[in-house]
Write a structure and sequence with these properties.
This protein has 563 residues and is an alpha/beta fold. It has 18 helices and 23 strands.
């Protein structure tokens, strides 16, 4: 550190000492700041929810009063508060109230779980669940239709209860006959742009609804949720976030109802996690309202910010809805599908930049990524004065054609990736894309970084568990959570551990225009911290997944402490 920087640090420290006393001091551990100029520190002092000093513990004595809370880390590791870079907050809570189908290993497992739920439900009550993935089942797929199971078994065990089970990806759903009857879906029902009702050779619906066609069933479900379920979902999402060390959450696509319940949660002091929300582009009325009034920044002491719009360009690889340049290797003649037209994407992007909104687009397939980059570039060229610091994002960027990889850095488009998707999806995703595409263009994190892109990380919860340690492990090892394969999948695409930690802290803050208030441990920023049981930067690779969250601190308050 040069003399000028030393003098500046000492000045800030002594100003802090003179003007404030500490509510809390944290020390005696490895504290990673995510500030390249001062990468680690021995101790941190907090007052009124903000960081007021950092340095040697003994130098902080003047800030201590009888009321100062001293947290001795006892060798544990502290980082800036973990920021979930892409998830669905309300969906996380709602999933906690439904059947968890993520561990099913066969269609029969799913049927058995629903059967148990039916026995404990009243006739007519909806049975809801999430997390099944047919590509992870050990079933003989010969009886499947277009790669999916059919509803007959499900309908047989639940003739009087409507059943709606979301795919792990969230991009498909599975209904029984009762649910389809309620929705008025039959052999004659068709769905147009952006969705698919999977039908057998006779034209009968199989119960599987892909992409936007899910709305035929889900709107009936939403109309039957209890009034208490919304706030309960938020409470459960807060609890799950804090237990996993998450202090901030980028909510990827919210509508009017979720906005209302988040405001209610703030008013009732339920919301303990900072939310950076993206408006869903599926509600044009909602968007038009927000275009007129502009972004909302820092509500409730920076608990809620709404300054971005979420576009949906395609589906997911798991449901074969991801939009590809070339056909699916395991479904010839099928290319996935766009779920919003590029004309509409352009319209939203153009109005968004004029109204001061960041634009973030879901794009998984290489065709979707290319088309979104094209529309972004068009808008940037048309409005260069507004695109100087746009920080627009592509959510997932899972499969990117080699020619398009450099465009992220050149256009300053942020890839908001989910390391855990590689771990969960890679074993079966090769069947969708084939060897060449999976090696050259899927989960290409190192290539994106090398071309100057700033990566954000997350889990896409409830698609995956919110656990940042699992995603950190996947990002740095390129292995499944079982430690396979030995060298990782396409190991040249690994992130370093520091890069992975930055993707969950300062990079994620940058991707939300919040890097001046959080994302690193620096004087003046919010006292949002995560304390881990082990040093994620130095421990042996095989021990990473044994790491536990010991403390989650938000605004200088311990909101979670492990037993």
């Amino acid at each position: 550190m040069n003399n000028r920087l030393v003098i500046s640090f000492l000045f800030l420290f002594f100003v802090s000492c003179e003007s404030q006393k500490a509510d809390m001091i944290i020390h005696n551990g490895m504290i990673y700041t995510m500030n390249d100029l001062n990468p680690t520190t021995e101790a941190v002092a907090i007052s009124s929810g903000k960081i007021i000093a950092l340095g040697k513990y003994t130098d902080l004595d003047p800030l201590i009063t009888p009321r100062t809370k001293i947290i001795n880390l006892r060798g544990a590791t502290m980082t800036p508060g973990i920021i979930e870079g892409h998830g669905h907050f309300y969906g996380l809570g709602l999933a906690k109230m439904q059947l968890d189908l993520s561990k099913t290993e066969s269609y029969q497992d799913l049927v058995d779980m629903v059967s148990d739920a039916v026995e404990n439900s009243k006739p007519g009550e909806w049975i809801l669940g999430r997390g099944w993935h047919q590509s992870k089942w050990n079933d003989d797929k010969n009886d499947f239709v277009k790669g999916f199971q059919t509803h007959e078994q499900l309908s047989e065990i639940s003739p009087n209860n409507p059943v709606w089970l979301k795919h792990a990806s969230g991009h498909a759903g599975f209904a029984n006959q009762k649910a389809m009857d309620i929705a008025g879906v039959n052999k004659e029902t068709e769905f147009g742009f952006g969705g698919e009702i999977i039908k057998d050779l006779s034209g009968k619906p199989t119960g599987v609804f892909n992409e936007r066609a899910q709305g035929l069933i889900s709107e009936k479900v939403e109309n039957n949720l209890s009034e208490d379920s919304d706030l309960r979902a938020i409470e459960l999402a807060v609890k799950a976030s804090l237990e996993n060390g998450v202090t901030s959450f980028h909510d990827a696509g919210i509508g009017r109802r979720t906005i209302e319940v988040l405001r209610e949660a703030i008013n009732k002091d339920i919301l303990k996690v900072r939310i950076y929300a993206m408006l869903t582009s599926r509600d044009t009325t909602l968007l038009n309202e927000w275009y007129k009034k502009g972004p909302e920044i820092g509500t409730g002491g920076d608990l809620l910010t709404i300054r971005s719009i979420k576009i949906n360009a395609d589906g997911a690889l798991g449901s074969r809805g991801a939009w590809l340049i070339d056909e699916y290797s395991d479904r010839p003649g099928h290319y996935g599908m766009p779920t919003q037209s590029m004309d509409y994407v352009y319209s939203v992007a153009k109005q968004g930049i004029k109204s001061g909104f960041q634009v973030n687009s879901h794009a998984i397939g290489d065709k979707a990524n290319r088309e979104i980059l094209n529309e972004y570039e068009k808008v940037f060229n048309e409005h260069p004065e507004l695109a100087i610091d746009h920080r627009w994002r592509i959510e997932h960027a899972q499969h990117v054609a080699p020619d398009d990889i450099p465009r992220f850095g050149r256009l300053k488009v942020i890839p908001s990736i989910q390391g855990i998707h590689m771990s969960s999806d890679r074993p079966w995703a090769i069947n969708r894309l084939g060897q060449k595409r999976i090696e050259e263009s899927a989960y290409v994190w190192r290539d994106l970084i090398n071309y100057g892109a700033v990566l954000i990380n997350g889990s896409d919860v409830p698609v995956e568990p919110i656990d940042p340690i699992a995603s950190f492990y996947a990002s740095t090892t390129r292995k499944t959570l079982k430690g396979l394969p030995d060298i990782g999948y396409e190991p040249k695409q690994k992130m370093t551990r520091i890069e992975a930690l930055k993707s969950y802290t300062i990079n994620a803050a940058y991707g939300a225009f919040e890097d001046q208030i959080k994302g690193s441990i620096e004087i003046g920023k919010y006292a949002d911290f995560t304390v881990f049981s082990q040093n994620l930067i130095t421990i042996p690779e095989e021990k990473i997944l044994d790491t536990k969250v010991l403390y989650t601190i938000v605004n200088g308050v311990v909101e979670y402490q492990a037993n």
